[in-house]
Amino acid sequence: MSLPEALGILAAGGAAGAINVIVGSGTLITFPVLLAFGYAPVVANVSNTIGLVPGSIAGAIGYRHELRGQRPRIAKLVVASGLGAVTGAILLLTLPPSAFKSIVPVFIVIALVLIVAQPWLTSLLRRRDTEARERLGPAALLAVFATGVYGGYFGAAQGILLLSILGLAVHDTLQRINATKNVLAGLVNLLAGVIFAVVAHVSWPAVGLIAAGSVIGGTLGGRYGRRLPPTALRAIIVAVGIVAIVRLL
User: Fold this and answer.
1) 3-state secondary structure of 219
2) 104 with 41: CB under 8 angstroms?
């Protein structure tokens, strides 16, 4: 690995860590960068998943104040997310690499659509803040499980999916919902990452660089993320996502 490649992966990890804490979809930064440097798609995905775990932890710590009082709710949700993560990771390791290359461009397109639609989703969630009911029932838990499967398999825009589901299922402020999202997305990456570390082919130098960058980015995102201009952020993510699709195809 050359010095420019190492610096590029480190920077991508930092950007992804911050984006994951603020919105979700940091994978659309790190995954294309690894592809551009010649990593095989599955190796890039596995290494990326493991590398982003420390950044997710840092982001959850940054949102610790918003997590207060949410333990009973999160206790239910982590079971659904955890089971989904394990299922998704197993699917990634058992399906042939050709399936991943065929499926992931579709996932990225869906992720980009969600990113573009995020202002509308955010507006919808804020309008629901005035409603007094919470519907964390079987349908919501099943949706969180499905998001965990997606996150364990690939994961781009997993956070946006969780924000949408939780915003419709629970009654709380958007920032507290975002804090819950950070915990669940981090758990999915952690469980999938443990499985990948044991049985998959991992590029540990890439993991280390992404992890270092994601911790810095996750910490800064948790502290200053609300100050970033969302339109510019979405434009960057969409551009990088298009590059990833082109690279895969």
Assistant:
1) helix
2) yes
DSSP state of 65: T
Q: What is the pLDDT of residues 175-205, one digit of tens each?
A: 788 888 889 998 999 999 999 999 999 999 9
Both tokens assigned to 247: 């690279």
Residue entry with tokens 């952020």: 233
141: tokens are 């838990």
Structure confidence by residue, pLDDT tens digits, 198-245 = 999 999 999 999 999 999 988 887 676 556 566 665 676 677 667 667
Burial (CB count within 10 angstroms: exposed 0-12, middle 13-18, buried 19+), residue 63: buried
Query: Could you tell me which of 41, 28, 40, 34 has the C-alpha nearest to residue 10?
Result: 34
Closest CA to 207 of 4, 34, 2: 34
Q: Are 17 and 215 in contact (CB under 8 A)?
A: yes
Six-digit token string for 218: 């996750």
* DSSP 8-class letter at 227: G
Q: Fill in the DSSP letter of residue 214.
A: H
Query: Structure pTM?
Result: 0.80
Distances (CA, A) of 207 to 9, 49, 142, 204, 213: 9, 8, 31, 5, 10
Q: Which residue has the tokens 């819950």?
A: 180
For residues 121 and 33, what is the distance between their CA atoms, to the nearest angstrom?
A: 28
- For residues 157 and 19, the answer to whether their CB atoms sit within 8 Å is no
